[in-house]
Design a protein that fits this description.
The chain is α/β, with parallel strands linked by helices. It has a single domain, classed as Alpha/Beta hydrolase fold, catalytic domain (Rossmann fold, 3-Layer(aba) Sandwich), CATH 3.40.50.1820. The protein contains 14 helices and 9 strands.
Length: about 450
């Protein structure tokens, strides 16, 4: 019996991906279930079994797994690891063209006009609450943080918030702007960031940090009252105003939004685009906003994020050379890991149909070679198998080595589950300092 079946036996009908991450990470690392307990041993055994899936005939799609995995070449057709690619620039041009064709990023020419809604100081930082209208949906809201009184051009970070099964919130997940954050945000930061607002922490080191909401999160989320037909589903009758931030309203919304996700993904496919394509579009507009700031050195911009933010880092960092340094946290494995073992732990936001024929997942991020690149993974992260996380690391090492840039790639592994804790943050911040801070 695989881990997914074990959890299916234990979980209620409304079990969410967010609860899976929290509970399985806790269980597999000994919290709160005692090490050596029967349940802990069962879960550890099932995790060990899952790491062997690629060497067996078992998969999450049964006997069809090995066949499906055999459909693509290894290395894929446009992998830089293929011997035929001798010159990096020639390979890069060909691979980028193919990725952009399958990504389906909407071809919208647009320059955001930014409104500063509020300015204040908190936590030793100057803070601005910003917004900008986009050609579709409600306006994007964002938080900008910078050292107090900063005027000269500084390095900057585009902070990419996570998914976490929580679409009601976006920018607020990794920032703190008062001593009284929403209790669900406080718990979220405790669960995933060891109680820290990491965007604040790196801003204190001398960076300008912009944290925007992205497509379907926070200010960009799908509002229940805007959805028509049977796709509308059911939300509590007393939840007519989804701006009322009672815990039960937010949790109810997040449950509804989780069930709506497959509808959005399929609709985007029908529109000729993909979720990563829309993510990239909106993150690039945010990058335009950050680059235009007078206190930002546009040649020293990085990006980082955990989980869904790591996914966005892989696409934005891989496909936009304005990102001079990138740290992908808790989102790096191979297409085979997803195919054979772990699609059920991942959002619809991950996938680009057909692209695996041309590049493995880490090679999308590897398109940024030779720009400085870090990947942070956790050995007991239940969203991936450890062998395939290690394989992804080897692929990126090979890509950077072939490009003569081995010193510009670092893949770090940590104990524990799905997280971006203080030790990981420190390593990430030091990597940014190494490549973005002028000596």
């Amino acid at each position: 019996m695989g881990m997914s079946e074990q959890f299916d036996m234990m979980r209620p009908k409304d079990y969410s991906r967010r609860r899976f991450i929290k509970q399985s990470s806790a269980m597999l690392t000994g919290f709160p279930i005692a090490a050596g307990s029967d349940l802990s041993n069962v879960l550890l055994d099932t995790m060990e079994q899952e790491t062997k899936l690629n060497a067996s005939q078992n998969s999450i799609i049964g006997q069809y797994g090995p066949w499906a995995a055999s459909l693509k070449e290894d290395p894929p057709k446009l992998s830089f690891r293929q011997a035929k690619w001798k010159k990096r620039k020639k390979w890069h041009k060909k691979a980028m063209k193919k990725v952009m064709a399958h990504l389906g990023k909407p071809m919208i020419q647009f320059s955001p006009t930014v409104t500063i809604e509020r300015t204040y100081q908190y936590d030793g930082l100057d803070i601005e609450e910003l917004s900008w209208a986009l050609p579709y949906g409600r306006p994007t809201k964002a938080i900008l943080l910078k050292p107090q009184g900063a005027t000269k051009p500084l390095p900057a970070i585009l902070g990419l918030h996570d998914h976490g099964g929580n679409k009601y919130f976006g920018r607020r997940k990794i920032t703190r702007t008062s001593d009284s954050p929403h209790p669900l945000i406080e718990q979220h930061q405790l669960d995933y960031y060891e109680g820290r607002a990491w965007a604040n922490e790196i801003a204190k080191r001398g960076y300008v940090v912009l944290v925007p909401d992205n497509f379907t999160f926070g200010s960009r989320r799908v509002h229940y009252q805007d959805v028509a037909g049977s796709a509308r589903g059911i939300l509590k009758a007393d939840h007519k105003d989804d701006e009322i931030e009672a815990n039960e309203n937010i949790e109810d919304y997040n449950s509804w939004a989780e069930n709506h996700e497959h509808i959005m993904a399929k609709s985007l496919f029908c529109g000729g685009t993909t979720w990563p394509g829309v993510f990239l579009l909106e993150d690039q507009w945010a990058l335009d906003v950050l680059s235009a700031r007078k206190e930002v050195d546009s040649e020293r911009i990085g990006c980082a994020g955990l989980s869904g933010g790591g996914l966005r880092t892989a696409y934005l960092g891989g496909l936009d050379a304005r990102i001079k340094c990138a740290v992908c946290v808790g989102f790096m494995s191979t297409w085979n890991d997803f195919l054979l073992n772990k699609t059920y732990t991942h959002t619809w936001m991950t996938y680009i149909p057909i692209l695996p024929n041309y590049l493995d997942f880490p090679e999308i991020f590897g398109l940024r070679v030779p720009l400085p690149t870090m990947v942070q993974s956790c050995n007991a992260d239940p969203l991936y198998t450890l062998p395939e996380m290690k394989r992804a690391d080897e692929i990126l090492q090979d890509v950077f080595q072939k490009a003569g840039a081995s010193e510009r790639y670092k893949g770090n592994f940590y104990e524990g589950g799905h997280k971006f804790d203080r030790a990981m943050q420190q390593d990430a911040f030091e990597w940014f300092d190494q490549w973005l801070v002028e000596n």
